[in-house]
Amino acid sequence: MDHARVAISNLFGGEPKSYTRFSIARQMDGDNSHVEMNLSADDEEGGETGRPEHLHTSMPPPWRIDKNRCFLIITAVLLLLIGFLIGYLSYRGRMQKDSRCLDGSGKCEMTPTASYLVDDNEAAEEVPGPPVLYWPDLRKLLSDKLSTSHLENSLRLRASKYSCEAGQSEDESLAMYIHEQFERFSLDEVWNDEHYIKLQVKGSSDNIVSTLKDGKEEELERPSAYVAYSKSGSVSGKPVHMNYGLKADFQKIKNLDISLNETIIIFRAGKITLAEKVANAKEAGAVGALMYLDPYDYRNAEGLVPFGHAHLGTGDPFTPGFPSFNHTQFPPVESSGLPRIAVQTISSQALVKLFSKMDGERCPLDWKSEIFGCKVMPSSTSNFTVKLSVNNVMVDRKILNIFGAIKGFEEPDRYVVIGAQRDSWGPGAAKAGVGTAILLELARVISDMVKKDGYKPRRSIIFASWSAGEYGAVGATEWLEGYSATLHARAFTYINLDAAVLGVNHMKISASPLLYTLLERTLKGVKDPVEESKSLYDRVGSDWVKTVVPLGLDNAAFPVLTYSGIPVVSFGFYNKGEEYAFLGTTQDTLDNLKKIDKLYALMRAAAEVAGQIALRLTHDHELFLDFERYDEELLAFQEKILPYYNDVKELGLTLNWLFFARGDFQRATDSLRNDISNSDRENRIIRRALNDRIMKVEYDFLSPYISPKDAPFRHIFFGKGSHTLQSLLENLQLLRTSRDSVDVNMLKEQLALATWTIKGAASALVGDIWNTDNEF
């Protein structure tokens, strides 16, 4: 009826929609006459009900009044029916299409109303007029346009490169090439983002690892690689093998009453990042650290020495929390994540020589190491030590991030970002070449869909090529820091393409829970390049969420999620039980990468997954972010801490407030879902407001009670620090294993801050302030 009323109103020249005591008709033909209608005579002072106080002297006869009344009634009924039909047809048409005529040509693009609750393959109702790009059509169009030959040509750029180190000539020339390609693809906007940063590089003299015994020094190796942000200088200490360098590994050694002060810790690559291993070694009192590729985890790794960085953080460690723009000047400051101990990587061959000179206990069998003669540490009476000399130097460099954008036609200020690392210490075929090739192919294909096939995304798509990724996502982090005040309100997803193909047998996925549903549907719609009769969803299995891998500090998606509160997804193909040995080494060449069976088909499949995610997020009326997934995450956390309920109660505390906050969040998601279900998706203002509430879900899990400068990774689920739910759980576990070591005041603070962060997220999700309260 509202539509009918609007149609009738328009038919009569646009009268006011609201009812007033008097309705003044619009002046017609320039005369000064007007009609005044008394709607309620009994309201008039001094008047009698149903009888006007004054009548016109020339009142027409009764029969004429009856005739006029009949005519008016018939006319009103006909106009009402016509208006109803106009309103109904208009409403029905808008429910099937979003018509927008372009550049006066009369050509209109129509996109159906869509929600992620609708089945992707559900048949759409036919609508007369120009062809409609429904989601199944759009998905097929993307798949048809993706080309393995284009991917191969782009990847071939890495064939002749020995190194593409950040800020050097090779990196800059590749940046200019990407910029030119974005312009050739006719992207709406192409621009560069400059940053001036401090990097640590290998000095003019080699780093050296040697052994000392009975006053005699013997050189073990002069590695070709180095570890950025290591402490420079020479250190010596007894070597102690610490397996993977996990906290649990350190705890096992400490339980043997072995002091780790002034030691040099040896650990194998894998499980956690090098920076985390080094931080654990520093905390234990070590003066140095060595890392190698164990043949058990990395096949064909003999003689390989990996590069790496030891900064427990991301971005430029000398402008922590601030962007490194050329016009910004900050007082000298260093990140607390710098290791301040000497760190170097060595080959497994050098480590075999080291162990051959050591006496002491052999490595445990459950370590499953394939290093010949592996030993934990020298005997207590031995004077055998290891000397580590690091000669790295600091340099100032300019780096470039390259961006290209396809602007949305409805909400250009809302965007999904697709990014890939460009730089590499070695040739970087797998580390950076694959992602860069996929980035260029997606930019080409999606731009072609917009320019030639009439696709008009509602929201924008930004393609980003990052530099200095090898040093800890420096380029990406500096960009986030530079626009931290607005990015969380504009960017609703980041898709990471780095190292997308490292094998063929399995898939590794890291993602925000908000993207689980979209990722699952996407995998169902992409063919497995190895077994073409199946989809990628068949490869990962129905319980794939249980295998989701936490994001590492080396992943550019990590700061996007934990610093900026933007949902992310990072995925790739790999061989289960066998890491890609050449990653991050001078042997990460195109020839070695091509040994992966069906390499280009796998790259195309990765491009199709990333492309479908980006298109779906910019195509539908409703943002395809499943905010209700965090209900499950909070419930899973509640189940983990529930066993400690009585332990907490003995301290005079309670977990109830935290449980109530979880209940509040669940009710808030129910409220938002009801608001979405009961809203008119054709109303752009309402739809934008609802999508903004969906976009804020991830950001609201950044703890507001800590400084982003002191603890930048503030996400309570995926961040780093005492504010995280994982840190709270670990403190609760100590109540059982080491009660005396529990800081009760810290535990109180963790419970309070976690409770109010979740409660705040619930209140923000509800929307209007009058719908919130401070009661549990």
UniProtKB/TrEMBL annotation:
Gene Ontology process terms (BP): intracellular iron ion homeostasis; receptor internalization; transferrin transport
Keyword flag Transmembrane helix: yes
Domain Transferrin receptor-like dimerisation, first and last residues per copy: 664-765
PTMs per UniProt: Stearoylated.
Location(s) in or outside the cell: Cell membrane; Melanosome
SUPFAM superfamilies in alphabetical order: PA domain (SSF52025), Transferrin receptor-like dimerisation domain (SSF47672), Zn-dependent exopeptidases (SSF53187)
Topological category with respect to the lipid bilayer: Single-pass type II membrane protein
Top-rank taxon, per record: Eukaryota
Keyword field contains Acetylation: no
Region of interest (Disordered), residue spans: 37-59
Entry-linked InterPro entries: PA_dom_sf, Peptidase_M28, Peptidase_M28B, TFR-like_dimer_dom, TFR-like_dimer_dom_sf
Main location: membrane
Transmembrane stretches, start-end: 70-91
Peptidase M28 domain mapped to chain residues: 401-595
Similarity comment text for this entry: Belongs to the peptidase M28 family. M28B subfamily.
Subunit relationships: Homodimer; disulfide-linked.
Function: Cellular uptake of iron occurs via receptor-mediated endocytosis of ligand-occupied transferrin receptor into specialized endosomes. Endosomal acidification leads to iron release. The apotransferrin-receptor complex is then recycled to the cell surface with a return to neutral pH and the concomitant loss of affinity of apotransferrin for its receptor. Transferrin receptor is necessary for development of erythrocytes and the nervous system. Acts as a lipid sensor that regulates mitochondrial fusion by regulating activation of the JNK pathway.
Name the UniProt record assigns to this protein: Transferrin receptor protein 1
Species whose genome carries this gene: Athene cunicularia (Burrowing owl)
Taxonomic path: Eukaryota, Metazoa, Chordata, Craniata, Vertebrata
